[in-house]
Design brief:
The chain is built from nine helices and nine strands. It is an alpha/beta fold.
Length: about 260
């Protein structure tokens, strides 16, 4: 007699496909439920095995028929209304959405409806506030270099300066969206690039290499300060890129101006 192994099964009245196959095999040999039961690897009640054999003999199909589920409390029309309301005001809370559209159902039900459409609450992505002219200029720049290869980009030195500012808004904004809508205009949190400068830093990188990163201990960065910075910090980086790639490096400033050396 094979050893009896305890294993979690699909449910009291439901059999796994392995159990069904074993019951059918033993039934074809013995044609007796009393002889089948002692030989089962996964013990089952007499009534469960007997009902399964009866159903199999009637239908010749070992699959369980789907169990009818309880009808949804939210109509198709209300579900479509929920989706439209979530996208119309993405920063509202789940409780606010439920109360305004479907006050007679639970928040969990509304959450499940949104989840079926791939919508849940995410932190709004942050980026600098762009004007229409800024966005158009960025697009022109991207189209200009759209066909560059990986080797082309390895010759580019990227630099930028960043200021640590006081009184930045620390609040996190949450929005309703799908995973593919994270950069949509309605799903981002913009911020102004202005404020009281406490400390400015400058750094650059190229290819897989991180290069210089230095604080600028000055009251303001004018063209003279910036010229001295590039002369003292950028020239050694240009030489390393030239020695590594065997090509003339390209310096890309944060305002997307290209300088070939």
């Amino acid at each position: 007699m094979p050893p009896r192994i305890k294993e979690k099964t699909p449910g009291i009245g439901r059999l796994s496909d392995i159990e069904k196959g074993e019951i059918m095999r033993l039934w074809n040999v013995h044609q007796s439920v009393a002889k089948v039961l002692p030989q089962l690897t996964y013990p089952r009640q007499d009534s469960v095995v007997r009902k399964f054999i009866q159903r199999w003999q009637q239908r010749r199909d070992y699959h369980d028929r789907p169990t009818p589920s309880r009808p949804s409390k939210v109509s198709g029309r209300d579900q479509r209304h929920l989706l439209r309301a979530a996208k119309a005001n993405r920063s509202q809370t789940l409780h606010e959405l439920t109360k305004s559209v479907t006050p007679n159902v639970s928040v969990r039900t509304v959450n499940r409806i949104l989840a079926k459409e791939g919508i849940k609450t995410w932190r709004a992505k942050k980026r600098p506030k762009l004007t229409e002219d800024h966005a158009a200029e960025h697009l022109r720049w991207a189209l200009c270099y759209a066909y560059w290869t990986e080797e082309d980009w390895k010759q580019v030195i990227w630099s930028d300066e960043c200021s640590v500012e006081k009184s930045k808004d620390p609040r996190t904004v949450w929005v309703f969206r799908t995973a593919y809508e994270k950069w949509d205009k309605e799903c981002i949190q913009t911020y102004e690039k202005a404020g009281e400068v406490k400390l400015m830093v400058w750094g650059c990188f190229w290819g897989p290499y991180r290069e210089t990163f230095v604080p600028l201990i000055v009251k303001s960065v004018d063209r003279f300060v910036y010229h001295d910075l590039l002369e003292n910090l950028l020239l050694p980086v240009l030489q390393r890129v030239r020695e590594t790639t065997g090509a003339d490096p390209i310096f890309m400033e944060d305002n997307s101006r290209v300088h070939k050396n």
